[in-house]
Amino acid sequence: MKKALLLLAALCALAACKESAPKYANRAEAIAAQIHNPDSKYVVVACHRGDWRNFPENSIPAIESIIRMGADIMELDLKMTSDSVLVLSHDGTVTRCTNFSSVFKNEPGKSAKVKDLTLAEIKQLSLKRAHNITIDTLRMPTLREALECCKDRICVNVDQGYEFYDEVLAITEELGVTDQILIKGKKPIEVVAAHEAAYEHNMMYMPIVDIQKPKGIELFNSYLEQGVVPLAYEVCWQTNDDGAFDEACKKILEQGSKIWVNTIWASLCGGYGNDDDAAYVAKDPGDVYQQYLDKGVSMIQTDRPEFLIKWLTSKGRHTL
After folding, report:
1. Domain assignment of residue 137, yes or no
2. Using one digit for the tens of pLDDT, what is the confidence trace for 212-259?
3. Which end of the chain is less enclosed by CB atoms within 10 A, N or C?
4. pTM
5. DSSP 3-state assignment of 208?
């Protein structure tokens, strides 16, 4: 009898241990699971170029800051140097975000385009914060450096960069983070399918559809008509006057996909009053953000991540 009781206790302890064991190996894996689950009520928060309000955009400290905030996705942009290294840069030139003019002041006519500069030249440049203050200790990171920082801690959205799909995938496979990367684009279904068919293992993919522009409408309709169901659609629209956004949300949810919206600029989400700044000045941020949750949106790209996360958490929509 005593042995039987001991055996029962051991089995109960083992069962309890299994129940308490973490479901996912790391936070990035848990976030990716939410992206893959069309029924999840968790709202994924993507940060536009990282915490650019406090650090240079697309920089390592900007990434570290949003990880501390509890953000889910680091949105970044890629360019390739003249010696074929991918670096984090939104612009095609380095004039806005670095002290290029000071470093190369003795080389008149020197090209400021990323594609014309070597990595060594890029690394000579100091990054600037949004209000044009140069940070002497910060340099433009390579994609590899950024992914090493993000690995297992936060997912990554490659915005500008589908043209470098092969090069990006090679790095993500080497680092073991492919499943944590979401890349997006406006390519036709056939182009994306052919590209992915070349590899056994691919990054997550999301089409960008502007539902009030001819090319965006055409791309969106091609997915619906062909019955191709992506993980999510990034939906852009300029005005709410014609009900296009409401109708698109309905069709996307019926199809079984998730909806990503950008509240970073009014021009991407129906006009003034629907963006982050409108939410920030409102007495209640829900006056802006609640409309998206009501329409079934479960992925939001923001320029005010800490503010949005706090509100979502209060609504029970941002707890893994």
Report:
1. no
2. 999 999 999 999 999 999 999 999 999 999 999 999 999 999 999 999
3. N
4. 0.93
5. strand
